[in-house]
Write a sequence for this structure.
């Protein structure tokens, strides 16, 4: 399911996640208080998601973060423009990533929510099997975000995140 929302705010101080701070190993919404960033929500109906930082052109997250199969939502701030995406481990054990948008419904800025093993478009209501994320593309399927596994880390290139800016 989508993380519980706080009152919706245009800008929030959100925990920063990635290898540069220890909060990357905490559950979403938790913070060590070490670093915060001004983050704007790119889609409607929720407080801004935690900021994901890139170091040396890469965002690196512990794979263990996704062991529970729950989608984790993040925001990358490209200057003043927020870019949202989610990461989850599907039932086949693959950690998958996609923008919180699709080719068809992105203008609605409503994104996806998780319902068990499916991601549901909050605009049109279509449901997508989580094990097909990064496999099936186009239409209302969650737009894939390239990622690789490096040891015990999921690595996403900063340029691949920025490539999704047109959705937001």
């Amino acid at each position: 399911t989508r993380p519980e929302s706080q009152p919706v705010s245009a800008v929030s101080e959100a925990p920063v996640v990635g290898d540069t701070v220890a909060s990357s190993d905490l559950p979403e919404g938790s913070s060590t208080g070490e670093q915060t960033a001004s983050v704007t929500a790119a889609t409607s109906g929720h407080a801004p998601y935690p900021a994901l930082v890139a170091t040396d052109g890469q965002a690196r997250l512990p794979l263990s973060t996704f062991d529970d199969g729950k989608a984790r939502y993040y925001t990358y701030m490209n200057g003043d423009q927020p870019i949202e995406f989610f990461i989850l481990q599907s039932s086949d054990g693959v950690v998958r990533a996609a923008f919180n948008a699709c080719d068809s419904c992105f203008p609605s800025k409503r994104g996806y929510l998780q319902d068990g093993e499916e991601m549901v478009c909050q605009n049109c209501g279509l449901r997508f099997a989580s094990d097909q994320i990064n496999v099936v593309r186009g239409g209302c399927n969650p737009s894939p975000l390239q990622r690789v596994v490096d040891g015990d880390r999921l690595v996403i290139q900063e340029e691949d995140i920025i490539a999704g800016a047109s959705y937001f």
